[in-house]
Design goal:
With 113 residues, the chain is mainly β. It is 8% helix and 29% strand. It has a 3-stranded antiparallel β-sheet. A 3-stranded antiparallel β-sheet has the order 7-4-11, with no helix packed on it. It has a 3-stranded antiparallel β-sheet with strand order 8-9-10, with no helix packed on it. Strand 5 and strand 6 form a beta hairpin. This is Alkylphosphonate utilization protein.
Length: 113
Amino acid sequence: MSSLPKCPACSSEYTYEDGSLLICPECGHEWSLEAESETAEESKVFKDANGNVLQDGDSVTIIKDLKVKGTSSVLKMGTKVKNIRLVDGDHDIDCKIDGFGAMKLKTEFVKKA
């Protein structure tokens, strides 16, 4: 198997090299390998409220009571969240919380457990 990266547009693993460009046959996206390495170096670093670096799969604890939008429920301080997934966007963490289901949290309201 080749060690070429997946397509950044559609995540297809069938990329191929054409000169200095990488091409995805499924969506037609073209990009250079140099741009791929630069974006990997500039990837966002997610930090919790105490400044600890967070990674996918970490467990975190909520540091303040949070109202759940659209319901009358509240996530209590000290609730432990396991196996987080870090994403780009307004909310940095996708997770599942026992008793609540799927949630999106901001890193400023959690600390690494």
